[in-house]
Design brief:
Length: 342
């Protein structure tokens, strides 16, 4: 039976590192996933929310030339947060990481990014002409390593999951034979991560070893309410498009093409729907990147596309677990009796 990797983090996929940079005064931050190597990793992306904020997603389109990424940036700050990718790109180019099209020219790293909205969380946003996100991107690169802090850090510092704090979460699955799948998420959905009982995560069927509290439904499972009370749809009668989102990266230690990464990203979006309700609304900007590098998939394990499907299914499970872990590590305010703790 598949189990989490040693860290239960996306960095269980060899060659990946994660860095956070958090500005407590602004109540926002940046999270970067670094993909080892000068050539970058094959990548894909699927955008399913109605109000996305993204950068360089077309570079990962299967019909386009490159289809690779040297890093993926998740950021707070809404459109201002896209500037974090400038800092990440500058830091990587300084290290000689990226595409060098002509001798003697700077290396050009490919740094796709997605942002979430956290501008109304009470932090100091009076940055005038100097938003902090480029600097936060530089700092996130310097902080990158194998350990992944979870909760209200980096891009998850100002996030909300419905009406409670969201944050950064991660999870992994070791499928055996050297094949590892992982997910990293900044969870800020308009929907709720809790079932109508207010204590059980929607993602509870996918939990492994009590990684987000071990709470199971008490009595019959109630899935009747299409808009849970803990979602923001029940409070704001006119939510703003793009003011909420779940942005994520999934990764696999496999030699996938850009088109196959795209399919994995599409399948991984189901992890959002398993963990938050409702998902992919007009007000969310749900975006999932997929990156992959590793040995060729073994021919004896079945058809290649069947193996891609297996990876995509595992990625969806990892993403569902990562969302619940993000909220759990942010301090979800629930005690064992299902009441909000004080």
């Amino acid at each position: 039976m598949p189990a989490p990797g040693s860290r239960n983090a996306i960095t269980d996929v060899p060659g990946l590192a994660v860095g956070h940079a958090t500005d407590e005064g602004v109540r926002s931050g940046v999270t970067v996933l670094l993909c080892e190597g000068i050539e970058g990793w094959m990548g894909g992306v699927d955008v399913r929310g109605g109000g996305p904020g993204t950068r360089e997603t077309e570079a990962l389109a299967p019909e386009n030339l490159v289809g690779r990424a040297h890093a993926i940036v998740l950021s707070g700050g809404s459109a201002f947060g896209l500037g974090a990718a400038d800092g990440v790109a500058a830091a990587l180019s300084h290290r000689g990481i990226g595409l060098t099209l002509r001798p003697g020219t700077p290396a050009v790293p490919l740094v796709p990014a997605a942002v979430l909205y956290d501008l109304a969380n009470g932090g100091d946003k009076g940055w005038s002409l100097t938003p902090p996100y480029r600097d936060l991107g530089l700092r996130a690169v310097e902080a990158a390593g194998p350990e992944v802090a979870q909760g209200p850090v980096g891009a998850g510092r100002g996030a909300m999951a419905g009406l409670i704090p969201g944050g950064i979460g991660t999870a992994s699955l070791d499928l055996g034979g050297g094949l590892v799948v992982g997910a990293l998420v900044a969870a800020n959905p308009v929907g709720s991560v809790f079932m109508p009982d207010g204590r059980t995560y929607w993602a509870w069927p996918f939990e492994i070893d009590g990684e987000f509290g071990g709470r199971t439904p008490q009595g019959p499972v109630d899935t009747s309410d299409p808009v849970p009370e803990l979602s923001r749809l029940g409070v704001h009668r006119q939510p703003t498009a793009g003011a909420n989102t779940t942005i994520a990266v999934v990764a696999a230690s496999a030699d996938l093409s850009t088109a196959e990464c795209k399919r994995v990203a599409m399948m991984a979006q189901d992890g959002i729907a398993r963990a938050a309700r409702p998902a992919h609304t007009p007000f969310d900007g749900d975006t999932v990147f997929a990156v992959a590098r590793g040995p060729a998939l073994p021919a004896e394990a079945g058809s290649r596309w069947a193996q891609v499907a297996r990876i995509g299914s595992a990625a969806a499970d990892c993403l569902a677990r990562a969302i619940a872990r993000a909220v759990f590590h942010a301090g979800d305010g629930r005690d064992d009796g299902g009441h909000q703790a004080t």
